[in-house]
Structures are given as C-alpha cells and as structure tokens.
Design brief:
The protein is an alpha/beta fold. The chain has helices at 18-29, 58-67, 82-95, 110-113, 128-153, 169-174, 180-200, 218-223, 255-267, 281-288, 300-306; strands spanning 9-13, 33-38, 71-76, 101-104, 160-164, 206-211, 278-280.
C-alpha cells in the first residue's frame, strides 16, 4: 500500500495512542499527510490535558507517521472545545484547502469505564458525573469535530469519514456493553456513521463505523505487563504478580491492523459501496488482503459470531 495515499490529506482526531496512533501510522505507511490531534503534548506550554496520566504524546505520533513514509503534523486540540476545533479547521483550510480522510477516534473514557469488577453496575449505582463525562468524551467530541471539519471533506468528491467504535452493529444490537453509559456511547457512534453517511452521500463522500477487535493498545499491554514484541507471554501462567490474559487474547491485534483497514478503505476507488455500514478490521483484512504487523489476519468478531461458547473445541488459530 506504499504511496497509495500520497497527496491525500487525512485528519486523525484522537491520535495520541491506541487505535488513533495505529490509524495515523498506517496512513503514514501509505504516504498520506496526516494531521494528528490530541491533548497530550511534548510542549510544556500546552494547556490541554488528557484524562489519562500517560507518557504518549501527539508529537510522537506525528514523528512516527513521518518515519513510516508520510508527513505527520501534530495539532494539540481539545475536541470538547468548539472554538479549538473551529480554529483547527481554519488552519487546515489555509494550509491544505481540504480533507480527504477524517477519522473520528476521540474517546478517553477508559478510566471512567473501570475494570471488570465495576462492569454491569446498574445506572442508579453509577457515578452520574463520570457517566456523563463518558458521553461527552465519546459522543459530543465526534459531533463537534464533524460540524467543523466535514465542510472540508466535501470540498471535492471522494471524501471518507471513519467513526471508530467498539463492537459490530449486530453484536452491539444484541449485547449489553459494560454499562448504560458505555453501551450508549458505542452504539451512538455506529448510528452517527449511518446518519452522516446519509448527509454525505450527495457530495460523493462515504461514512463508515469501524471497530477493531481486541486491541493491543499501550494501556492493554501495560495491563498484562507485556510489550508488543512479547504480547503472547500474557497467555501463559507467570505467577500471581503477572496477570494472565484469557484465551481470546490470542486473537488480539495491534493498533496498526485497524489502521491498515482505514488505509485500505481510503485507497479503494469503490469505497462508496461501504457507505453507512459498520465494519471491522478482520472483515476488511479478508476483503482487501492486508495483514497485521506480524503477517497474520486476526478476526475475533468472526470468532465471536461463529465459535465462542460452542460446545465443540475450536482452534483459535483458524481465526488468525
């Protein structure tokens, strides 16, 4: 896919870490100019602060994009502040004149979700302020971003909007997802892709919702006390001080995998066939033929649909 997106202008909103960084990196692999936004910055003067107290920064992501063959541009933006997003849109219009790919990946709610012991807590027992913060981070930010940046996407036909969510439309429609607030956010993002696809179609643009599978984000790797190079160690019993991942973790994927899904969509001249659909990284890997960074094609959503809970033994490698 090298150079398949050369001369394309992409914005990845929420590119500091996780899926956002993986998407920005994969767009860089394809040669795109990638404007990477987020709140965590190298600059000591940056006023925006992430909800996570972590070391990753938006400038690191931009440098990664450039190392991989694209042009990375860091923009420190709080997408809950409409004036900041409006100012970003003005800068992009002046410098680039348009956007070809917009990825709405803003989230930042993992600490609000809590771990498994907090899941399935009824709404009346949840912290209301934390729940509403989750809604603002996961839905309001996407609305603000689309309002200000989509006018740049429709400057010429062929634009692509990707709304990043968690879970396929079918799975989320049938399953309760962690809490009322989390469930609402992730299902709403799916609907946002549908509704925005309706509005973008007359301009020759495409909108999709896209979910990764089990993502080996920086936070997930830290949770299991492994790195990307030795992530499989999390599947082994290393003693009580080293948490062991469940068997499904064997089907996990690097953030670059969902990024390559975005790059493949953006490079496809027939991408409008996907308009208003909810897609997943494994599905698109089968369709377009790309792989994860280790050469495999993990497909945990197909595994969940076909095999999880089956009375018959299933080889997980059949889904990788």
């Amino acid at each position: 896919m090298k150079d398949s997106l050369r001369e394309r202008i992409a914005v990845v909103a929420g590119a500091t870490r996780g899926a956002g960084r993986g998407i920005a990196a994969a767009l860089g692999e394809a040669g795109a100019t990638v404007i990477c936004t987020g709140r965590s910055s190298d600059s000591p003067s940056a006023s925006a602060k992430s909800d996570y107290d972590r070391q990753e920064t938006i400038e690191e992501t931009a440098r990664l994009v450039s190392r991989l063959g694209g042009t990375g541009i860091a923009e420190v933006v709080d997408h809950l502040v409409p004036d900041e997003v409006a100012a970003l849109a003005a800068r992009i219009r002046t410098r680039h004149g348009r956007i070809d790919v917009l990825v709405n990946n803003i989230w930042g709610g993992e600490l609000l979700v809590g771990g498994p012991p907090q899941w399935n807590t009824p709404i009346w027992n949840l912290d209301l302020n934390k729940g509403l913060r989750m809604v603002r981070l996961g839905i309001e930010t996407h609305l603000v971003t689309s309002h200000h940046l989509l006018p740049l996407l429709i400057e010429r036909p062929g634009g692509l909007l990707v709304e990043v969510t968690d879970g396929t439309a079918e799975y989320n429609a049938a399953q309760y997802r962690i809490s009322v607030f989390y469930d609402l956010v992730k299902s709403s993002v799916i609907r946002l892709a549908f509704s925005q696809g309706h509005e973008l179609a007359p301009y020759g643009a495409t909108a999709v919702a896209l979910t990764p599978g089990w993502l080996r984000s920086e936070m997930m790797l830290d949770n299991y006390k492994v790195g990307e190079k030795n992530w499989r160690d999390a599947l082994t019993d290393r003693g009580s001080s080293q948490p062991k991942a469940p068997p499904d973790f064997a089907l996990s994927e690097s953030p670059r995998y969902v990024g390559r899904a975005v790059a493949a969509l953006a490079a496809d001249p027939e991408r409008r066939k996907w308009n208003q659909r909810t897609l997943n990284s494994g599905e698109l890997a089968r369709h377009y033929g790309f792989t994860d960074i280790d050469g495999s094609r993990p497909d945990i959503w197909r595994y969940i649909t076909e095999a999880r809970g089956s009375a018959q033994a299933v080889a997980l490698d059949e889904y990788r």
